[in-house]
Structure formats: structure tokens, C-alpha cells
Amino acid sequence: MGRNSAHESAIPRLRLVKVIVQPVVVLDDGHNLREVQTQTIEVVPAEWPDFPAKLAEQMARADIHEDAGDASADPGLRS
Q: Is 0.70 surpassed by the pTM of this model?
């Protein structure tokens, strides 16, 4: 009985299990800014150290496809 009452009175712990990020990036040609929509990125704790590289990779893909005039060609981007 003592074990159950201790468990019942325990305060639940709040745990962060993932972060969902919606990057907002713009293409800057020096005169205009144009927003490029990207997919949301789900980041679980094990991937947090790699997240900056993952975001940079997605942004680089956006630049490459925009230079080619087709931002929708990359499955990581939505038009």
C-alpha cells in the first residue's frame, strides 16, 4: 500500500520528445525578397546535434533549385 500511495502522489514529469520546426527562408536577389516554403522538420532528441546541418542542407537545396528556376523540383520544398 505504501508503494502505491507514493506512486500516486508523484508529480508527473514533463518530457520533451520532439520539436517540429517550420523554417521560413527567403531568396534575396539584392532587390527583392521572396519567401520559399519548406517542409516542416521533425527533430527528436537523438537528432538535435545534427539539426543545424540538416537545416543548412535543406536551405542549400532550395538555393540550387531556385537557381535552376524550379523550386518545386525538390521533394523537400513545397511551392
A: no
Question: What is the rounded CA–CA span in Å between residue 76 and residue 79?
Answer: 10
Q: Which helix (H) or strand (E) holds 3?
A: helix 2-9
User: pLDDT digit string (tens) for 4-28?
Assistant: 565 667 999 999 899 998 888 888 8
What nine digits make up the cell of 43? 527533430
> What CA–CA distance (Å, rounded) separates 27 from 70?
13
Residue 71, C-alpha cell as written in the block = 523550386
R_g over Cα of the chain: 21
